[in-house]
Structures are given as structure tokens and as C-alpha cells.
Specification:
Low-confidence stretches: none
Strand content: under 5%
CATH architecture: Orthogonal Bundle
Shape: globular
Mean pLDDT: 96
Largest sheet: none
CATH superfamily: MazG-like
Number of domains: 1
CATH topology: Helix Hairpins
Length: about 120
């Protein structure tokens, strides 16, 4: 998602919340809690599946997962908006940090944490 699309989504979500008088409920604390609750709902779709099953989901299950992912994105964008965080910039900054922590030549094919090598 490019920065323009993210900005448009942020504005659309602001308008959606304002039209319903939900701003009063959208504190950073509440949005963070809603975000983690939605992440939990996402995880439920994968609970008890094998690795292979998680990669070969039936269409109806995938559609449910798509909606959970959308919920997560909605709360993430709202939370970032409330905290004045530019998600695109923060993501690029984090990728740069990860590139420094996990140089390809050192970590390729390894799932170890950077502090373990």
C-alpha cells in the first residue's frame, strides 16, 4: 500500500468514525486493545491447523481471514492516526533497522533472533 492509499484510508476511517460519533471511543488504549483482539480472532482461524493446511485454505475460510486482516488494518491505521504516526515512514525506518540487524549474508535461511548470532 503506497502512502497516498494509506492517507486516503486514514481519511476514510476518520470520516466513518466521526459520522457515528465513535471518536469518543477511539483512544489509543482502546484502539490498541481492539487491534490485539482482532489479531486474536485472526489466529483462531489457524489454531490446530498443520503448516500445510494453513497454506491451503478453502475459499470460504480465506474470505473470513481477509475480513479479519481488514479489521486489523482498520484499527492499526486508526491507532497510528491518533498517535500522529506516519505508518509508511515508520515501516521504512523499521525495515532499515531490520536490514542492519539481519544482514542477508549472515542470516539467510535462519530463523534465529539477531541477538543469537
Amino acid at each position: 500500500m503506497d502512502n497516498d492509499a494509506l492517507e486516503m484510508l486514514k481519511q476514510e476511517l476518520r470520516t466513518f468514525a466521526a459520522a457515528r460519533d465513535w471518536e469518543q471511543f477511539h483512544s489509543p488504549k482502546n484502539l490498541a486493545m481492539a487491534l490485539i483482539a482482532e489479531a486474536g480472532e485472526l489466529v483462531e482461524h489457524f489454531q490446530w491447523l498443520s503448516e500445510r493446511q494453513s497454506e491451503e485454505l478453502p475459499r470460504d475460510k480465506l474470505e473470513e481471514i481477509e475480513l479479519e486482516l481488514a479489521d486489523i488494518l482498520i484499527y492499526l491505521v486508526r491507532l497510528a492516526d491518533k498517535l500522529n504516526v506516519d505508518l509508511a515512514e515508520a515501516t521504512h525506518r523499521k525495515l532499515k533497522l531490520n536490514d542492519e540487524k539481519y544482514p542477508p549474508g549472515l542470516v539467510r535461511g535462519s530463523a534465529k533472533k539477531y541477538s543469537d548470532y
